[in-house]
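Lecture notes, unit on protein representations.

Consider one protein chain, 480 amino acids long.
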Amino acid sequence: MDDFLSELKSLFPDDRFYTDGPRMVPYESDGLTAFRARPKAVVIPENEDEIVATVKLCHEYEVPFVARGSGTSLSGGSLPIEEGIVIGLNRLNRILEVNTDDRVAIVQTGVINQQVSATAACHGLYFAPDPSSQTVCTIGGNVAFNSGGAHCLKYGMTSSHILGLKVVLPDGEVMFLGNDSLEFVGPDIVGLYVGNEGLFGIATEIHLRLLPLPETYRTVLASYSSLQAAGDAVTDVVSSGILPAAMEIMDRLAMDAADAAVHAGYPKDAKAALIVELDGEAAAVNAEFDSIIEIIEKSGADHIHIAQSAEERMLIWKGRKSAFSAVGRLAPDFLVQDGVVPRGKLGEALQSIEEIGRKFKMRVANVFHAGDGNLHPLILFDGSIPGELEKAEELAGEVLRLCLRLGGSITGEHGVGVEKKEYMAEMFTKDDLDAFHRIRKSLDSKEISNRGKMFPSGEAQSLSQHGLHPLEKAGVISRE
């Protein structure tokens, strides 16, 4: 390791090569703050050549590396490896080109999601994927985890908006995948790469599909006396044949937190709030919006508020998008889950989550992408109390198994990372997992790219049910 670190140091100036404690601290964890690890070093490349040189060195010495953007992963996907290094990508933050004729933007991996739309807006264009962390998360991270957001119901996940990728494979080879056209011949290698959670190397340049800005938006906020009633309303909207741009649900806890944080003005007496938004051409939107209001009225909504201005609309969304961070006002710690259920099972799933919370005597705030059944229950706890983290993880596990029983998935957009890897064997067969592993090995024979993520260890039933987590035993993670 000394020889490796010596050669690595020769590639970077001192202000972009970290091995000392204070500068390493921000890289020891990502959005899943319950787990930490200190890597051997952190390097901050400023160009592709430095990334290639670093990856080739890691491959030569068989040292694992983790590529990291803003560290907003909520599944431990960018958690460091103690025997490895972190490659920080935030300085590769240039928008290289906006081609208005082809509606394509070429960006470096460290560009912030919202910056793309801000830059393209003057051309009447925008980048559709809008995760709640879009003001800080990077496009490279969006690609790694196939991020979604509130408007993925109509526009699809990140994978629907990636045309091409320039990537550094785990042995240092540079390749370009895809092209700038929606039509291509041959296997969908871009589709294979998006969502790989860092197991296939590092994307350095990303070709994004841009869309025309919608002519108009219509947004309604409806309140309900129960989460199940709000979930059933989503089913009613979907079964009508109308495809909203977004449908989101927040429960009382999430609304209280958002109101305290940004004064969103959500109804005080509601148990659940449903946000429905349409966008597109004005004539079509207005016609469909009348139908949406009629459906919501028949669904038993207690109160219906239609946004009368762009400012009102933005305040509704500001509250929704601040919910994750705002929940920190309600408890010292929380875990965010990311399971998916069929839309027709939303009401049942929400009622069951309430029952699970009561069983564990823990508060659970619900805020989620209702339109595609992507649940984000936030499990509130106090990590300073012995056993509370373990209880929260056990509760989270019951939620994931509930999603599987209802015909859903263990993750919609946050990824598997380290948090959900032990549940992969409950969702996929051994043959499936073997196939996944063969694909990974074909691209990374030494398994150095984001080692320890996604694939189940075969030992754990929950992150901490049997004492030390297998990743702790392997030196991949350590607890605070």
